[in-house]
Design a protein that fits this description.
The structure is a single chain. By secondary structure, the protein is an alpha/beta fold. The chain has seven helices and eight strands. Strands 5-4-6-7-8 form a five-stranded parallel sheet, with helices on both faces. Strand 4, helix 3 and strand 5 form a beta-alpha-beta unit. The radius of gyration is 20 Å and the shape is elongated. The chain starts with 15 loop residues before the first helix and ends with a helix.
């Protein structure tokens, strides 16, 4: 690869060597290449596209600056990690920043049918409050079990949305490939988007694309940790 600029200028960006060790430069096979990713590709090797890590560092720097300014201005950021590799990392990032999150599964209409989604969050919290105040004592044993099971299901779906008191100003996705419905709803709702994009996806779906391997956990972890350290 070409010579890497002096990295001391951007101390919050992971060193080039760490990015290579994490496999961040590995794109996807030629057979699934999206032509719009061409500006972010360094070379094709053994039928695999290699991402230009200089472009990755630039994209990450711009994304982090945007997120920092947004949060500094009091904007609400929704963090989304729908892949098995990213779910716990995204949850940890969001919780550390006191922001809402969605992991594992996106519920259709989270943005475009926002009032209905939030009503379910409110219902979950009302059940929890009722239970905490001893309100479940009036139910039969079978009814209590049913209520507790209902709460457990609601927590799986809505736990991360408790802090989503209004439509978010920005959405971060850990993978464009996993987030087609998310990005469609964001576009329809005119919400800014930031995220990781690999060579098989369309980077124009993001306002702030970070070209990188979004399949390897080490790659995702390195990027998310950089964002967390910069924003905390």
């Amino acid at each position: 690869m070409e010579t890497i600029p002096n990295q001391s200028v951007e101390p919050n960006i992971p060193p080039y060597e760490d990015m290579v060790k994490a496999g961040m430069h590995f794109g996807r096979k030629k057979s699934v290449f999206n032509p719009k990713m061409k500006p972010f590709v360094y070379v094709a090797r053994d039928n695999i596209y290699i991402i230009d890590l200089i472009k990755t560092r630039q994209g990450l720097s711009e994304a982090m600056e945007f997120l920092k300014k947004s949060m500094g201005d009091g904007k609400l950021v929704l963090f989304v990690g729908l892949s098995a590799q990213s779910a716990d990392l995204v949850k940890d990032l969001a919780e550390g920043l006191n922001m809402p999150y969605v992991i594992n599964r996106w519920l259709g209409g989270t943005l475009t049918n926002f009032k209905t989604i939030i009503s379910r969050v409110n219902y979950l919290e009302s059940l929890e409050k009722e239970m905490a105040l001893g309100g479940f004592e009036k139910y039969t044993k079978k009814e209590r079990i049913m209520k507790e099971k209902e709460m457990a299901k609601l927590r799986v779906r809505f736990d991360g949305l408790r802090k989503l008191t209004r439509l978010p100003d920005t959405i971060f996705v850990a993978s464009v490939r996993e987030s087609d419905m998310v990005l469609k709803e964001a576009k329809k709702s005119k919400i800014k988007t930031v995220g990781l994009v690999n060579t098989e996806s369309d980077p124009t779906h993001l306002d702030y694309p970070i070209p990188a391997n979004d399949n390897a956990r080490r790659s995702i972890e390195l990027i998310i940790n950089a964002i967390k350290n910069y924003l905390k």
